[in-house]
Design brief:
It is a single chain. By secondary structure, the chain is mainly beta. It has a domain at 4-68 and 104-113: ATPase, nucleotide binding domain (Nucleotidyltransferase, domain 5). It contains 2 helices and 9 strands; from the N terminus they run ββββββαβββα. The chain has helices spanning 54-65, 109-113; strands spanning 4-9, 13-19, 24-26, 39-40, 43-46, 51-53, 72-84, 87-98, 103-106. The strands form 3 sheets. Strands 1, 2, 3 and 4 form a 4-stranded antiparallel sheet that branches. The protein is flat and about 70 Å long. 10% of the residues are buried. The mean pLDDT is 92.
């Protein structure tokens, strides 16, 4: 008899279950979570490229960001090309980036991935 695996990749939470032909078992995918059968669908990546998932990601993000120094710098992010009626103009867009941030927390991964124009995410 073959083993069946079910994966729920949710926007907020995810989980995995297996069926052996007789019984369904939900797997403990996040041992640090209060409910280990559920993993928060979050990913935290540090500047050193260490990756954390689920509850561990939330804890690492919190640990790395509470009471830390911040330094914001202005960076060019691109431009907007506007055309309408008899007008046309191009405008530079700038954002303020915290150059001391220790990592990046990614949430709502499924929402971004399903967008037709999605081409990837620059982490750092």
């Amino acid at each position: 008899m073959s083993l069946k695996v079910g994966i729920d990749f949710g926007t907020s939470n995810s989980g995995v279950a297996i069926y052996d032909g007789e019984q369904v078992r939900v797997l403990p995918v996040d041992p640090k979570n209060v409910q280990p059968e559920v993993i928060k669908t979050v990913l935290y990546i540090t500047k050193e490229y260490r990756a954390y998932l689920g509850q561990e990601a939330a804890e690492a993000y919190y640990r790395d960001n509470v009471n830390r120094q911040r330094r914001f710098v202005k960076q060019w992010a691109g431009e907007i090309d506007y055309r309408g009626a008899d007008m046309h103009y191009v405008r530079d867009i700038y954002v303020y980036v915290d150059e001391l941030k220790p990592g990046r927390l990614l949430q709502y991964l499924k929402t971004a991935l399903r967008k037709e124009g999605y081409r990837g995410t620059q982490i750092f």
